[in-house]
Write a structure and sequence with these properties.
GO biological process, one term: proton transmembrane transport
Number of domains: 3
Helix content: 55-70%
Subcellular location: Cell membrane
GO molecular function, one term: antiporter activity
Number of helices: 22
Membrane topology: Multi-pass membrane protein
Structural class: alpha+beta
Number of strands: 9
CATH class of the largest domain: Mainly Alpha
InterPro entries: Cation/H_exchanger_TM, Na+/solute_symporter_sf, Transptr-assoc_dom
Shape: globular
Amino acid sequence: MLETMNASILIVSGLVALSIFSSLLSFRIGAPLLLVFLCVGLVAGEDGLGGLAFDDVDAAYLIGNVALAVILFDSGFHTSVKAFRAAAWPAMALASLGVFVTTAVVAVPVHALLDFGWLESLLMGAIASSTDAAAVFFLLRVGGIHVRDRVRATLEVESGSNDPMAIFLTLTLVALLADGGKVSGLHVLTEFVAEFGVGAVIGMFGGGLIVLALNKMGFERGLQPLAAISLALVVFGTAGALHGSGFLAVYIAGLIAGNAGINAPETMRRFQDGLTWLAQIVMFLTLGLLATPSEFSDFALEAVAVSAVLIFIARPLAVWLCLLPFGFNRNETAFVAWVGLRGSVSVLLSIVPMVAGLAHGRDYFILAFLVVLVSLGLQGWTIGAVARFLGQIVPKRIGPVERMELEIPGARHELVAYRIVADSLVARGHRLPRWAEPSLVVRDDKSYSAHAAGHLKPGDTAYLFARPERVPYLDRLFASAAPAAEADRQFFGDFALAPETHMKELAISYGLPVPVEDFALTLAQWVVRELGHEPGIGDRVGLGEVELIVRSMDWDDVISEIGLAVEPTIFDKPKLPLFQSRSELRAMIKRWMKKGAA
C-alpha cells in the first residue's frame, strides 16, 4: 500500500515537472504550450513510453471540471470592466449564435463521413463548438502577441463565456439521445433559462461575497488567495446544484472580484497565475493519459476533414455573421475567425457521452481529441504569423520597464521603473512633476538615493512611486524623442495631433474633405463617432487621402493622442476576398441595384 502510494506520488509529480520543463523547449521552437502538455500525457499513456493505463472517465471528467472552473475564475479575474464593456455585445453574439452556427455546420461532415445520425452529428458539433479559454488566454497574454484592444477583448470575453452554451447544447443533446428524443421543447427552454439565469445570479452574488470576504474578514496574507479560490469553487458547485451553469457563475464571480478593488490584488494575481498553470497542466495531462493513440488511425482522415470544415468554414461563417452588425473590418473578422482554438473544453465535453453510456461514446472522445490536436497545432502555431499578416499586432509603446502594484491599505500607488534613454525629455533636463520624484536610481549596477544620484543620465534606471492614472504621463517624459521605427511609424502615423483640435482647423491646415457641419467637432469626437464603438489604441479612420489613428488613451479611457498618416497604411487593407464588412456589403448591394436598374 505504502509503495503504491509513493509510486503514484512519484509518477504524478514527475509528469507535472516534465510538463513544466518542456515549456522551455516549447518557447524555443514556438510550439503551443498547451499542445505540449497534451503530448506529454500521450507519451506517458498506455501506448506511449510511460505505459500508464488510465481509463477512469468519471475521474477525468471531475478533474477537468474543477480545473476548468479554476481557469474560468482566473479568466474573469483578469478581464477588466473596460475590456468587457468594449467587447460585450460582439462576444455575447459569438458565445451564443456563434456556437449554434458552428454546431450546425460541423454536423454536416460528421454525418457524411461517419456512421452517425443527425442528432449524433449535432452532438459532435456541439462538443467542438466552444473555443478554449485556456488556449486563447495563454496565446494572447503569455505568448507575447499584443493585438488591438477591441479584437483582443472580444476573443478573451468570448472564450470565457461560450463554454456554458456549448455545455448546455451538449447536455441537452445527450439527454435527447439517452431518452430516444422524447424530451419536450418546453423542457429544453426551461433548462436553458435555468442554466443561464441561475448561473448569472449565483455568479453575481458569489462575486460580491468573495469581495466582501476578502476585504472585511482580515485573512492572513497567505490565506487570502486560498479563501478566494475556495469560495469560487463554492460558487461553481452551488450553481450546478441549483441546475444553473457553474462555468458561467464562476466566470462572472471572477469578473466582479477582479474589478472590485480587493485587498492585496498582486498577491492574488501571483497565486492565481501559478494555480491556473497547475490546473492547465493537470487537465491536459489527464486528458492525454485518457487517450489511446493506437485508436487514432481509425478516425484520422475523418478527423482531419471535420477539422478542416471547422477551421475554414464553420468558425469563419459563424464569426462573420456574428460580427457583421458591430463594425469589424475584414482583417479583424478574419483574425477572430482564426483564433478559434479548440482545447480542453471540447475533449472534456466528449467524455459526457461515455459517462452517459451512449452508443459511439468512445468515438466522440477520439474524434474530439484529434480535432483539438489539429486546431492547437495549426492555429496555435501560426497565430503570430496570421496576426502580422492581417495587421493586427500593435507595436509596443515605450512604457515602464517594470510596474509593481503596492499592497498598502488605503493607498493606490504603483512602483514603476524606467530606463533613461539619451534623447528623452528627462535626459535633456525636463523637470519631473513633484508627485513623481525618484525614490531610487540604479547606475552602473549601484543604487543611489534620488538626492545622491543628482541629474538622471542615459543608462540609469529610475524607480518612482505614482498613481496608476498618472503613469501614461510619465511614459511621455521617459520615452525616446527620436523618430519612431518604421513599423511604429506606419502603424501610428507620421506625426501626432492633439485630440482637442477642431475639425475645421484640420480641414484648413491640410485641405481635407471635412463637411461643414463637422467643423465644430474635436478630432477625438469625430474619430469616436466614425468608429461607432469605444476607441482603442490602434483604431483608425480614413479621411480623404489620410488616416487618423488612435495613438494613446488616458487612464479614464479618453483619447490622449491621435496620429495622422499622410498616406493610408497597409494595416487595414483587406488581405482576403472574404468577410466583407457592413459598409462594404451596403456598397455592393447599391452597385447591384444600379446595374439592375440600368
